[in-house]
Amino acid sequence: MRVFVTGVTGQVGTEVVAELQRRAAQRRRGPLLDIVAPEESVLDLTDRDAMLAAIGTVEPDIIIHAAAWTAVDACESDPDRAYHVNSLGTRYIAEAARLVGAHVCYLSTDYVFDGTSPRPYLEWDDPNPLSVYGRSKLGGERELDPGHTIVRTAWVSSTTGANMVKTVLRLAAQGEALRFVDDQRGSPTAAADLAGKVVELSLGRHAGIFHVTNQGSTTWYEFARLVVRAAGLDPGRVEPISTGELRPPRPAPRPANSVLDNAALRLAGWDLLPSWEQAITGLVAELMA
Q: Any bridge partners for residue 37, and if so which?
């Protein structure tokens, strides 16, 4: 089985490739895996001819599409780029997949919701994104065929790339003020945990939308306190603020509630990911080792 992965230098893409390599080395659960993972420098999502040629040459059975422009605030000031990469780029992936008969798994986001729900969001709730980033990722979802896989996730952190765990640790080490919003709630997710489920859903060609996050929910304030405590520092250093108190204010609106209920997995009897506390505590230990 040949698997083509995009976004291989990003947080999720890096862990997806690592998970595929582990499975290939162990030769377990299904056919042998041939992994094709071109870096972004040689894979231009916005070039239709190049994408059709690349995927047409490789002829993969599975495409895991983790590449995206995820700079949420920058997307607000450059919507054309956001839609070009996240929406139109995904159209090219879907078109190429049809030509070679490949199954696509697309990584999406909690930002497709507006955050006004009083409960966690189900896979069947209607999206209503507030930001350009969220709208462009929803655009990508709508480019896929009904039989493909969409994995929505949230608040991702890993040992690679920029993320909130690294930000909290850096600010704490520098003695900076630790002020985090306490009125945005979400589901923190470790990219390594997420990758295992993404690969499982992809190789099994499971169709439809799946919410995949570590279990439980929290605010950024509570999240930062756990990171600081896991680093052996005083969580009392972390102060709660409201979104309106952020200085400078963020250009892109954030959903106040972006907690994702992993209902499709749960109702189908799949194993869910560990708690977010367990995942983030382990990640902090790994980063500080």
A: none
